[in-house]
Amino acid sequence: MTNSKKSSNNSSKSNELYAIAETSGQQFWFEVDRYYDIDRLKAKEKDKITLDKVLVLKDKESITIGKPYVKDAKIELEVVSHKRDKKILVYKMRPKKKTRRKMGHRQELTRVMVKSITIGKSTPKSSVKKETVKKETKPKSEKSTN
Asked: What is the value of pTM for the model shown?
């Protein structure tokens, strides 16, 4: 019994940083250096993808819950490969009508690897200053013309 308690403590230590994010209509529990199969994305292999719709973020000290999303939180993914899921058989039959239809479906998937989970400002301060300067100059010119 002591071994199982130690293993559960070890598993909780490995889950010190995780995030729950929304992508392709589903919610996924993302951890760093793990791969996940999500619906097909329009990206090439080894492309970087950033997810901004983070619902919950847990680090070593605290848990941050978004309303609905955590502000300035990002998950960086790298596309590993594109693949297809196993075949699902769909069989439809109308009783007493001699109508039967058998179809198969294979979902298109993209395998992604989580590179990093971050929270913080993503835009550089210099670009924000340029925008504020432009906004300030326009009202001053309008006031001087009136």
From this structure: 0.67
